[in-house]
Specification:
Elements: E1 2-7, H1 17-20, E2 27-28, E3 32-33, H2 34-45, E4 49-54, H3 58-65, E5 74-79, H4 88-93, E6 100-105, E7 108-110, H5 114-124, E8 128-138, E9 142-147, E10 150-156, E11 159-172, H6 187-196, E12 202-206, E13 210-212, H7 216-233
Protein backbone atom coordinates (compact mmCIF):
# COMPACT_ATOMS: atom_id res chain seq x y z
CA UNK A 1 0.00 0.00 0.00
CA UNK A 2 1.13 3.51 -0.86
CA UNK A 3 0.51 6.73 1.10
CA UNK A 4 1.18 10.34 0.13
CA UNK A 5 1.80 12.70 3.05
CA UNK A 6 1.26 16.40 2.41
CA UNK A 7 4.07 18.10 4.33
CA UNK A 8 4.71 21.31 2.40
CA UNK A 9 2.67 23.87 4.35
CA UNK A 10 4.14 26.78 6.29
CA UNK A 11 2.19 26.08 9.50
CA UNK A 12 1.30 29.75 9.98
CA UNK A 13 -1.13 29.03 12.82
CA UNK A 14 1.61 27.37 14.88
CA UNK A 15 4.10 30.21 14.74
CA UNK A 16 6.57 30.80 16.33
CA UNK A 17 7.14 27.00 16.54
CA UNK A 18 7.14 26.68 12.74
CA UNK A 19 9.55 29.54 12.12
CA UNK A 20 12.47 27.14 12.45
CA UNK A 21 10.69 23.76 12.22
CA UNK A 22 8.36 22.48 9.49
CA UNK A 23 4.93 21.76 10.95
CA UNK A 24 5.17 17.94 10.56
CA UNK A 25 8.24 17.93 12.80
CA UNK A 26 6.78 19.81 15.76
CA UNK A 27 7.22 17.66 18.88
CA UNK A 28 4.45 15.64 20.50
CA UNK A 29 5.35 14.59 24.02
CA UNK A 30 9.02 14.35 24.95
CA UNK A 31 10.37 12.04 22.24
CA UNK A 32 8.36 12.11 19.02
CA UNK A 33 7.62 14.39 16.07
CA UNK A 34 4.11 14.16 14.65
CA UNK A 35 5.49 12.94 11.29
CA UNK A 36 7.40 10.14 13.01
CA UNK A 37 4.19 9.02 14.71
CA UNK A 38 2.33 9.02 11.39
CA UNK A 39 5.06 7.02 9.61
CA UNK A 40 5.18 4.46 12.40
CA UNK A 41 1.38 4.11 12.26
CA UNK A 42 1.41 3.66 8.48
CA UNK A 43 4.13 1.02 8.72
CA UNK A 44 2.21 -0.87 11.42
CA UNK A 45 -0.92 -0.73 9.22
CA UNK A 46 0.96 -2.43 6.37
CA UNK A 47 1.96 0.49 4.17
CA UNK A 48 5.33 -0.14 2.53
CA UNK A 49 5.70 2.96 0.33
CA UNK A 50 5.26 6.64 1.12
CA UNK A 51 5.77 9.82 -0.86
CA UNK A 52 6.36 13.03 1.09
CA UNK A 53 5.23 16.19 -0.70
CA UNK A 54 7.53 18.82 0.79
CA UNK A 55 8.01 22.57 0.38
CA UNK A 56 8.59 24.95 3.29
CA UNK A 57 11.74 23.81 5.17
CA UNK A 58 11.52 20.58 3.22
CA UNK A 59 15.25 19.90 3.47
CA UNK A 60 14.82 19.46 7.24
CA UNK A 61 12.08 16.88 6.69
CA UNK A 62 14.26 15.04 4.15
CA UNK A 63 17.17 14.98 6.59
CA UNK A 64 14.95 13.70 9.42
CA UNK A 65 13.08 10.98 7.49
CA UNK A 66 15.72 9.86 5.01
CA UNK A 67 14.67 6.84 2.96
CA UNK A 68 12.20 5.67 5.61
CA UNK A 69 14.06 2.44 6.32
CA UNK A 70 14.09 3.09 10.08
CA UNK A 71 10.31 2.53 9.97
CA UNK A 72 10.45 -0.32 7.46
CA UNK A 73 9.17 1.86 4.61
CA UNK A 74 10.41 3.07 1.24
CA UNK A 75 10.07 6.87 1.30
CA UNK A 76 10.56 9.18 -1.68
CA UNK A 77 9.91 12.90 -2.14
CA UNK A 78 8.17 15.44 -4.33
CA UNK A 79 9.11 19.09 -3.91
CA UNK A 80 6.65 21.96 -4.37
CA UNK A 81 8.34 25.00 -5.88
CA UNK A 82 5.17 27.02 -5.16
CA UNK A 83 2.04 26.21 -3.12
CA UNK A 84 -0.19 23.78 -5.02
CA UNK A 85 -3.08 23.26 -2.59
CA UNK A 86 -4.16 19.98 -1.03
CA UNK A 87 -4.49 17.90 -4.18
CA UNK A 88 -2.19 19.80 -6.56
CA UNK A 89 1.01 17.93 -5.53
CA UNK A 90 -0.58 14.65 -6.64
CA UNK A 91 -0.79 15.73 -10.27
CA UNK A 92 2.97 15.66 -10.83
CA UNK A 93 3.12 12.29 -9.03
CA UNK A 94 0.37 10.63 -11.01
CA UNK A 95 2.60 8.23 -12.95
CA UNK A 96 4.40 7.16 -9.74
CA UNK A 97 1.19 6.22 -7.92
CA UNK A 98 -0.77 2.95 -7.85
CA UNK A 99 -4.40 2.73 -8.93
CA UNK A 100 -5.64 3.46 -5.38
CA UNK A 101 -3.66 5.19 -2.64
CA UNK A 102 -3.99 7.08 0.64
CA UNK A 103 -3.46 10.84 0.90
CA UNK A 104 -3.16 12.60 4.24
CA UNK A 105 -2.01 15.78 5.91
CA UNK A 106 1.25 15.53 7.82
CA UNK A 107 -0.17 17.01 11.01
CA UNK A 108 -2.88 14.50 11.95
CA UNK A 109 -2.82 12.75 15.33
CA UNK A 110 -5.34 9.92 15.36
CA UNK A 111 -5.84 6.20 15.98
CA UNK A 112 -7.65 5.88 12.65
CA UNK A 113 -7.02 2.59 10.80
CA UNK A 114 -5.39 3.97 7.65
CA UNK A 115 -5.43 0.61 5.89
CA UNK A 116 -9.17 0.27 6.46
CA UNK A 117 -9.75 3.70 4.92
CA UNK A 118 -7.96 2.57 1.77
CA UNK A 119 -9.78 -0.78 1.72
CA UNK A 120 -13.10 1.01 2.14
CA UNK A 121 -12.22 3.35 -0.70
CA UNK A 122 -11.40 0.52 -3.07
CA UNK A 123 -14.63 -1.31 -2.16
CA UNK A 124 -16.77 1.82 -2.60
CA UNK A 125 -15.93 2.28 -6.27
CA UNK A 126 -16.02 6.06 -5.80
CA UNK A 127 -13.34 8.48 -7.05
CA UNK A 128 -12.61 9.86 -3.58
CA UNK A 129 -13.11 8.77 0.02
CA UNK A 130 -13.05 11.34 2.82
CA UNK A 131 -12.44 10.31 6.43
CA UNK A 132 -14.88 12.35 8.52
CA UNK A 133 -15.18 13.20 12.20
CA UNK A 134 -18.02 14.56 14.35
CA UNK A 135 -17.45 18.06 15.74
CA UNK A 136 -19.66 20.20 17.96
CA UNK A 137 -19.56 24.00 17.96
CA UNK A 138 -21.04 25.91 20.87
CA UNK A 139 -22.44 29.36 20.05
CA UNK A 140 -22.00 31.74 22.99
CA UNK A 141 -24.81 34.05 21.91
CA UNK A 142 -28.55 33.92 21.55
CA UNK A 143 -29.23 33.12 17.88
CA UNK A 144 -32.04 34.92 16.06
CA UNK A 145 -33.80 33.82 12.90
CA UNK A 146 -35.21 36.78 10.99
CA UNK A 147 -37.55 37.24 8.04
CA UNK A 148 -38.16 40.68 6.51
CA UNK A 149 -36.76 42.41 9.61
CA UNK A 150 -38.96 40.36 11.94
CA UNK A 151 -37.58 37.93 14.50
CA UNK A 152 -39.34 34.62 13.83
CA UNK A 153 -37.32 32.29 16.06
CA UNK A 154 -34.84 32.42 18.91
CA UNK A 155 -32.41 29.84 20.32
CA UNK A 156 -30.32 30.52 23.41
CA UNK A 157 -26.65 29.53 23.00
CA UNK A 158 -27.19 26.53 20.71
CA UNK A 159 -24.73 23.79 19.76
CA UNK A 160 -24.24 22.79 16.15
CA UNK A 161 -23.23 19.22 15.25
CA UNK A 162 -21.53 18.54 11.94
CA UNK A 163 -18.94 16.27 10.32
CA UNK A 164 -15.61 17.59 9.14
CA UNK A 165 -12.85 16.28 6.92
CA UNK A 166 -10.03 14.71 8.95
CA UNK A 167 -7.43 15.44 6.29
CA UNK A 168 -7.21 11.75 5.31
CA UNK A 169 -8.41 10.56 1.91
CA UNK A 170 -8.59 7.50 -0.29
CA UNK A 171 -7.93 8.54 -3.87
CA UNK A 172 -8.06 6.74 -7.22
CA UNK A 173 -5.49 7.72 -9.82
CA UNK A 174 -8.17 8.26 -12.47
CA UNK A 175 -9.72 10.95 -10.25
CA UNK A 176 -6.78 13.18 -11.23
CA UNK A 177 -7.52 12.94 -14.96
CA UNK A 178 -8.22 16.27 -16.63
CA UNK A 179 -6.26 18.43 -14.20
CA UNK A 180 -3.02 20.15 -15.21
CA UNK A 181 0.22 19.31 -13.35
CA UNK A 182 1.92 22.37 -11.91
CA UNK A 183 -1.32 24.24 -11.28
CA UNK A 184 -2.92 24.47 -7.82
CA UNK A 185 -5.76 22.09 -7.01
CA UNK A 186 -7.53 22.37 -3.69
CA UNK A 187 -9.54 19.71 -1.91
CA UNK A 188 -12.55 22.03 -2.08
CA UNK A 189 -12.25 22.40 -5.86
CA UNK A 190 -11.94 18.65 -6.38
CA UNK A 191 -14.99 17.88 -4.23
CA UNK A 192 -17.04 20.60 -5.96
CA UNK A 193 -16.08 19.22 -9.37
CA UNK A 194 -17.01 15.66 -8.37
CA UNK A 195 -20.39 16.75 -7.02
CA UNK A 196 -21.10 18.76 -10.16
CA UNK A 197 -20.25 15.70 -12.27
CA UNK A 198 -22.61 13.48 -10.28
CA UNK A 199 -19.73 11.47 -8.80
CA UNK A 200 -20.10 12.08 -5.05
CA UNK A 201 -17.25 11.08 -2.73
CA UNK A 202 -17.61 8.31 -0.17
CA UNK A 203 -17.64 9.31 3.52
CA UNK A 204 -15.66 7.12 5.93
CA UNK A 205 -17.12 7.99 9.33
CA UNK A 206 -14.76 7.78 12.28
CA UNK A 207 -15.47 8.51 15.93
CA UNK A 208 -12.22 7.56 17.66
CA UNK A 209 -9.36 9.88 18.59
CA UNK A 210 -8.43 12.71 16.21
CA UNK A 211 -6.67 16.05 16.57
CA UNK A 212 -5.58 18.54 13.91
CA UNK A 213 -2.11 19.52 15.13
CA UNK A 214 -2.19 22.59 12.88
CA UNK A 215 -4.68 24.17 15.30
CA UNK A 216 -3.00 25.63 18.40
CA UNK A 217 -5.74 24.35 20.74
CA UNK A 218 -5.46 20.82 19.36
CA UNK A 219 -1.66 20.97 19.50
CA UNK A 220 -1.71 21.93 23.17
CA UNK A 221 -4.25 19.20 23.89
CA UNK A 222 -2.15 16.61 22.04
CA UNK A 223 0.88 17.35 24.20
CA UNK A 224 -1.20 17.24 27.37
CA UNK A 225 -2.77 13.88 26.46
CA UNK A 226 0.01 12.08 24.60
CA UNK A 227 1.51 10.17 27.54
CA UNK A 228 -1.87 8.68 28.46
CA UNK A 229 -2.71 7.97 24.79
CA UNK A 230 0.69 6.69 23.65
CA UNK A 231 -0.24 2.99 23.78
CA UNK A 232 -3.31 3.73 21.65
CA UNK A 233 -1.45 5.83 19.07
CA UNK A 234 1.79 3.82 18.92
CA UNK A 235 0.70 0.23 19.33
CA UNK A 236 3.53 -1.98 20.46
CA UNK A 237 5.73 0.97 21.50
Amino acid sequence: MHAVILAGGKGVRLRPYTTALPKPLVPIGDQHAILEIVLRQLSTAGFTRCTLAIGHLGEIIRAYVGDGSQWGMNVDYATEESPLGTMGPLLALRDRLPEHFLVMNGDVLTDLDYADVLRSHEASGTPLTIATYARKVHIDFGVLTTDASRVVAFTEKPSIDYRVSMGVYGVSRATLDGYTPGLPLGFDELVTDLLAAGRPPHAYEFDGYWLDIGRPDDYDRANAEFTSRKSLLLKGA
